[in-house]
Every structure is written in C-alpha cells, then in structure tokens.
Design brief:
InterPro entries: AAA+_ATPase, ABC_transporter-like_ATP-bd, ABC_transporter-like_CS, ABC_transpr_LolD-like, MacB-like_ATP-bd, P-loop_NTPase. It comes from Ktedonobacter racemifer DSM 44963. Pfam families: ABC_tran (PF00005). With about 260 residues, the chain is an alpha/beta fold. It has a domain of about 70 residues. The protein is built from nine helices and ten strands. A six-stranded mixed sheet has the order 6-7-8-3-9-10, with helices on both faces. Strand 4 and strand 5 form a beta hairpin. Helix 4 packs across helix 5. It is globular and about 45 Å long. About 35% of the residues are buried. The structure holds adenosine-5'-triphosphate (ATP). The site of adenosine-5'-triphosphate has 12 residues, from strand 2 and helix 1.
Length: about 260
C-alpha cells in the first residue's frame, strides 16, 4: 500500500455507513442480541448480497440500516445524515426520498391496479396526482409492464407482481433499493428475470441494491457478498475477488 494514501472510499460515494451497531430485542422474558457489533459501508452503485443462516440477523440489519427500526447502540449514517438526529417523522420522509423497498411477498395492495400501487408512495410524499401518474408510468415502462398498468395484482403472475413492486420502489427515484428475499416466492426462471432487471437498473440508472438472500446462485450475481452469523459479519468479499481465487463454489457448498 502506498504511504499516506487512504483506502477509504470518498465520503460522497458512501451511501450507508454503520459503526458498531448493536440491536437487542427485549421480549420481556429474554433479551435477543440480534446484532452484536456490525460495522460496514455501502457505496453508491454497489449491488450487495447479504447471506447467512436463518436467524443470524439479516432482516434486522436491513431494518436498522434502512432506518425502519432504531438501533440499540452504534451509529448509522444514510447519505451522510446521522439518523439518530432525526425524529420518526423526519426519518420517514428521509427514507421515502432516499430508498425503495422490495419484499418477498410483493406487498402490493390488492384493491389497487398496478399503476395505482406505483403511484401510492408518490402521492404519500406529497407529489401532485398529475406528476405521480407521469412518474409512475415512467417507472412501469422501466420494468417493461406498461400493458399491465390497469390490471390488479390478482390478475398477474408472481414475476409481474414483483416487477410492479420494483416499479413502486423506483417511482420516488431513490438512490438505494433494499430487497428482502426478492425472488423467494418465484420459480428459478422468473427469479433470474427479476435479478436481471435489478442488474440492468443498477447499470443504467446507477441504482444501489442490497439483497437479502438465501440463494447462492443469486448472491454470486451481486458485486459484493456479506456473510453473517450470530449477529456479526463474518465475511465481506467482492465477487470478482472470490471467483478469481475459485473458492465461491466451495464456500457455497459449506454454507
Ligand atoms: N421483533 C422481534 N422481537 C424479538 N426477537 C426478534 C424480533 N425480530 C427478530 N428477532 C430475533 O432476532 C434474531 C435475528 O432475526 P432476523 O429476522 O434478523 O434473522 P434473519 O437472518 O433475517 O432470519 P431469516 O433468514 O429466517 O429471515 C432471531 O433470533 C430472531 O428470533
């Protein structure tokens, strides 16, 4: 390493920074230590996969990093803003502006059409109905489902529902999209289509993605794989580096 040269990325490239984050759930009978000192940085334009056995703290980490839940101790900065200093209302607005969310079960409202589902976060954030419609149609176009805009979720396949969920996440033009098991309810062909869509959006729009996944074949398509166990990060590697040393399959086989 060259003397005096920092290996840290420039601060403006860091979208999420977590320092020594602990999260405890007090159930009344026991205290579950779901995160036990997590430190990490996520840079803009990365595609990060978070893996690990059930119960290791993946969803808790996603909830804390995205400001959906408060940490017990430690600090989290999102786009250079320390979220400890934000009230719940400020945090909700900040999250709506900076982030989109995609879930395994799509979370579309059944009584609304695809278009109305995509418009919803825009209307909630105070955008006029005319602008919301234009912006929603743009993001539906980006996921290739313009012809399905007036259909309700019940008339759609799982893959189409997840595309609408991605369009909804894109509608507010966030810098980062969190996806918790985004392909968990889909067959392998449709899963790959959804992954390809997210990778295209990463390349074309520079959108940062964080995927929580159990599936190794999905994780290996990210640019970076973080492996957790017992509330801690055990490994944090660039996929390119992994495939170079040829250990990815072996690691997957063990996991
Ligand atoms: N609201 C809660 N109250 C109490 N304990 C919780 C709560 N949420 C999570 N936990 C516990 O915290 C630990 C981490 O859970 P978490 O859901 O983050 O794991 P995970 O890695 O996402 O698991 P999975 O892959 O099964 O979704 C587990 O022991 C879980 O039981």
């Amino acid at each position: 390493m060259e003397m005096g040269k920092s290996i840290d990325p420039p601060q403006e490239d860091v979208i999420i920074e977590a320092i020594d984050v602990h999260k405890h759930y007090d159930t009344g009978k026991v205290v579950v230590k779901a995160l036990q000192g997590v430190t990490l940085r996520i840079q803009r334009k990365e595609v990060v996969a978070i893996m690990g056995p059930s119960g290791c703290g993946k969803t808790t980490l996603l909830n804390c990093l995205s400001g959906l839940d408060r940490v017990t101790t430690g600090s989290i900065r999102i786009a250079n803003q320390d979220i400890r200093h934000l009230s719940d209302r400020q945090l909700t607005l900040f999250r709506a502006r900076e982030m989109g969310f995609v879930f395994q079960t799509y979370n579309l409202l059944p009584v609304l059409t695809g278009l109305e589902n995509v418009e919803l976060p825009l209307l909630v954030s105070g955008v006029s109905s005319r602008v919301a419609r234009t912006r929603a149609l743009e993001s539906i176009e980006q996921v290739g489902l313009r012809d399905w805009a007036r259909h309700r979720p019940a008339e759609m396949s799982g893959g189409q529902r997840q595309r609408f969920a991605i369009a909804r996440a894109l509608a507010t033009t966030p810098s980062l999209v969190w996806a918790d098991e985004p392909t968990g309810a889909l067959d392998s062909t449709t899963s790959q289509e959804i992954i390809d869509l997210m990778l295209t959006l990463n390349r074309e729009l520079g959108l940062t993605f964080v995927w929580v996944t159990h599936a190794l074949d999905i994780a290996r398509q990210a640019s970076r794989v973080i492996t957790m166990s017992d509330g801690l990060i055990r490994e944090d590697v660039l996929v390119e580096a992994l495939s170079k040393v040829g250990t990815f399959e072996e690691k997957g086989a063990q996991g």
